[in-house]
Design goal:
The chain is of the alpha/beta class. It has twelve helices and ten strands. Helix 3 packs across helix 4 and helix 8 crosses helix 9. Belongs to the aldo/keto reductase family.
Length: about 290
Amino acid sequence: MDTIELNNGISIPQLGIGTYRISPDDAQRSVKHALDTGYRLIDTANIYMNEKAVGRAIKESEIHRTDVFLTTKLWPSSFSFAKAKEAIDASLNRLGVDYLDLVLLHQPVGAINQAWRALEEAIDEGKVRAIGVSNFTQKDLEKLLESTDVVPVVNQVECHPYFQQRELKEFMKTNNIALEAWYPLGSGSPELFAEPILTALAQKYSKSVVQIILRWHVQSGHIVIPGSKNLSHIDKNLDIFDFDLTDDEIALIGTLDRDKELAGMPRIVRRLIGLARPDFNAQPQLKR
């Protein structure tokens, strides 16, 4: 499994399994199977309501805890200093682990700075190894970086061949923030899967279009977490490390970029929780 070194020196596997919209029973089964077949990166979140199941799968797998890179996320309802600390402890309890490898702020809304300060303290306390964010735009990242010396190790965002996040990636590269892709397959878009460039590459390498897209992610330096409850799909998603796309082929896939979201999660969430933008300025500065 290929890995990426994060800006704090910790290595993260480039390919993992996500558990978004997967029921507890299916999550336990999928994560257990993934770990048994070679996956070592597991992504969950408080809001997914399957942390307990993920924890059970890790224990059942008998893979040593230090060999599993475990990520969870805090929902904006926990974005105060005290609530964020409580939420971290609650996730540790639900997952049945002594520490978390990575904790993300799930959305760029609410009391960002208070929650970030709680994550920083969790690192100092040994409860968390690395901290990052999810769904942050460049402006969101700029605001956070103005108020802290602890740079997020990752920003987990929607990313796929139709939405390649070029400008955001360039900013993140400058600040040594890794891109972690959710919806890496464009939510299974039939239009994307039928793209002639991708189908031709799939035929050339005797792979599926899904495997071509995942290989493009890995060679583009992304961390990628496709979710599935289909055990065969989980196996096939892992089978992408026996070939390399050429530079020209990577460039061809680059031409598919439409700068088009297929989910638009941040805007949806902002409407749901009734917040237009993050409330950075209301919070104290977090210089360490």
